[in-house]
Amino acid sequence: MAEERTGAVTFAGKPVTLIGPQIQVGQKAPNFEVLANDLSPVTLADSKGKVRIISVVPSLDTGVCDAQTRRFNEEASGLGDNVVVLTISADLPFAQKRWCAAAGVDRVQTLSDHREMSFGTAYGTYMKELRLECRAVFVVDSNDTVTYVEYVPEVTQHPNYEAALNAAKAAR
Predict the structure, then answer these.
(1) Can you tell me the distance from the alpha carbon of 122 to that of 96, in angstroms, rounded to the nearest whole number?
(2) I need a surface site. Which of 71, 88, 119, 143 has the fewest CB within 10 A?
(3) DSSP class of residue 170?
(4) Quick check: is 100 catalytic?
(5) Of these residues, 42, 54, 65, 84, which one is catalytic?
(6) Using CA atoms, how far apart are residues 163 and 160, in angstroms rounded to an integer?
(7) 9: which strand partners?
(8) With the C-alpha atoms ordered 163, 106, 157, 113, is the resulting torsion angle positive or negative?
(9) Which of 3, 2, 22, 1 is nearest to 134 (CA)?
(10) Other CB atoms closer than 10 Å to residue 30's CB: what's the count?
């Protein structure tokens, strides 16, 4: 049974339970399996050898999640070919595809954890009470080592974009 961490973050001011471990800088990035917009499986190994910014959001259909994904999409072009941005939520792949088309997002790969919450359980972002991901950002270097972690304490607030982007630039 996966570890449960009660009160690690709040959602709209109320403490929630996160399922999974608290990831630490310096540890090997856990593997996961999520779905691409075409329903094909995607794992950490699919971007092996690249620096990964993993942006985790509850739902693309909310204001902060929308803004977070658009911000990383804008920043992605300046990060070079060795950096990929993955946005993971529990939204259905069809909704993610529709959102990307409507938002003009084309530099971020949106991935769905709805099927098994594999990412959320491996990275400790699965909010048990809501069956959604909490807001978090991870940077994983080309050797699959975690170099940056932010679990946003209040899920309805923005992450520290600059810190995550600086960590991705340093990881190259």
Answers:
(1) 21
(2) 143
(3) H
(4) no
(5) 65
(6) 6
(7) 16
(8) negative
(9) 22
(10) 18
Sequence letter at residue 54:
I
Q: How many CB atoms lie within 10 A of CB 165?
A: 21
| Nearest Cα to Cα of residue 21 among 32, 12, 30 | 30
Checking if the pLDDT of 67 tops 80, the result is: yes
Residue partners of 78: CB distance under 8 A and separation at least 6: none
DSSP state of 164: H
SS (H, E, C) 73-114: HHHHCCCCCCEEEEEEECCCHHHHHHHHHHHCCCCEEEEECC
| Type of residue numbered 35 | L
Q: What is the pTM for the complete model shown?
A: 0.97
How far is residue 124's CA from residue 30's CA, in Å, rounded to a whole number?
Answer: 11
Query: CA–CA separation, 74 vs 145, rounded Å?
Result: 25
Handedness of CA 91, 169, 40, 25 (dihedral sign): negative
Adjacent-strand bridge partners of 137: 55, 150
Nearest to 164 by CA among 23, 68, 62: 68
The two tokens of residue 93 are: 């792949």
Query: pLDDT, tens digit, for every residue of 105-115?
Result: 999 999 999 99
Do 107 and 76 touch, CB atoms closer than 8 A?
A: yes
- Taking only the tens place, the pLDDT of each residue in 107-157 is 999 999 999 999 999 999 999 999 999 999 999 999 999 999 999 999 999
